[in-house]
Design a protein that fits this description.
Elements: E1 2-8, H1 12-22, E2 27-34, H2 41-55, E3 61-63, H3 74-80, H4 106-115, E4 122-126, H5 131-139, E5 147-153, H6 172-176, H7 178-185, E6 191-194, H8 196-199, E7 206-207, H9 208-217, H10 220-236, E8 238-239, H11 242-251, E9 256-265, E10 275-279, E11 285-291, H12 293-303
Helix pairs in contact: 1-2, 1-10, 1-11, 4-5, 5-7, 9-10
The chain binds beta-D-ribofuranose (BDR) and calcium ion.
Beta-D-ribofuranose (BDR) binds next to α1, α6 and α11.
Length: 307
């Protein structure tokens, strides 16, 4: 089993990735940290617990860093709903009661989990602005030794083919904390990145008929995912599940075509959040640039089957 720390901002697509991760026998979730992005770090923690509760699973949730003066962007409210989970009315339930997710120093908490494992034993799966991870690397550089790989949904690597989803140049996660994105991408960690041009593929998105297929599976994870996706799909007619690509690249790397690169991220100005990508075989970042769409859909549907 891969030992994974999830770093998320749930968020509809984060929620789908979380449901699949909780339902995967190949993954042991060591903890889930949240960060402000699609929703506040606090709302993200509550949302993560709602999902765990609905599936009867208990994992350690850590409310991570909130940026000062954080305000949800219009983009995030429109896409993910007022509650961040597609306004599906998922109940808070019982897991939240007495469950500790507020830590005085969440980054220290994450560091202590990681360093309690052996060298290269821990994998990070990051589907949100990289604020927590950049702080982790800055404050606890020792953690690097324990991290095998970092799977990231973020960035856009081929802007000729796809424009950013916040500005023309930038993808949401990298734009939201561009300095953190630069710190993480520019580290020497081994990173697998799924960028916007891949995750926005229409043939891997959820439309009405795909939503029906998910409902038909009838398992608890499938029905929960369908509930969360229902309003966004009704609103946009199809919905991109960006964050699921990061999970898929961890669990099914053979589905993806990758190219190695070094990546830095513009941290300010008009181009904030834009990736500066230098393709080279000794790069620390493997950029997933193509996927077998049929296999991706199979991965998704199989992932909802009862364990
Ligand atoms: C990313 O931004 C968020 O809206 C999604 O959850 C995803 O992580 C896509 O740009
Ligand atoms: Ca996300």
């Amino acid at each position: 089993m891969v030992k994974v720390i999830l770093d998320m901002d749930p968020g509809v697509d984060d929620a789908i990735a979380l449901i699949l991760a909780l339902n995967s026998p190949e993954i042991e979730i060591l903890a889930l940290s949240t960060v402000s992005g699609n929703v506040s770090a606090m709302m993200g923690a509550v949302n993560a617990l709602k999902i765990c509760n609905a599936l009867g699973k208990g994992i350690r949730v850590i409310k991570g860093l909130s940026r000062k003066g954080y305000r949800r962007s219009r983009h995030a409210v429109e896409v993910h709903g007022r509650d961040g989970l597609g306004d599906a009315g998922i109940a808070e339930g019982v897991v939240r009661t007495g469950y500790r997710y507020r830590y005085r120093d969440p980054i220290r908490e994450i560091a202590s989990i990681i360093t309690s494992y052996k060298s290269k034993e821990v994998t990070l799966l990051c589907t949100a602005p990289l604020t927590n991870i950049a702080s982790l690397l800055e404050e606890y550089p020792d953690v690097k030794r324990h991290i095998d790989k970092v799977f990231i949904m973020g960035g856009a690597y081929n802007l000729g083919a796809a424009e950013g989803n916040v500005t023309r140049y930038a993808e949401f996660n990298f734009y939201t904390d561009a300095r953190a994105a630069d710190k993480v991408m520019g580290s020497d960690l081994s990173i697998v990145a799924s960028g916007l041009e891949l995750t926005s593929r229409r043939d891997c998105s959820i439309d009405h008929s795909m939503l029906e297929r998910i409902k038909t599976i009838g398992s608890k994870p499938a029905l929960l995912a369908a509930r969360i996706l229902s309003n966004p799909v009704a609103r946009y007619s199809y919905f991109n599940i960006h964050d699921v690509f990061a999970l898929a690249s961890l669990l099914k790397p053979e589905m993806f075509a990758v190219r190695r690169a070094r990546v830095r991220v513009e941290s300010a100005g008009k181009m904030r959040g834009m990736c500066i990508t230098e393709y080279r075989t000794d790069g620390n970042v493997s950029i997933c640039y193509d996927v077998d769409a049929q296999k991706f859909i199979d991965f998704l549907l199989d992932g909802f089957l009862d364990e």
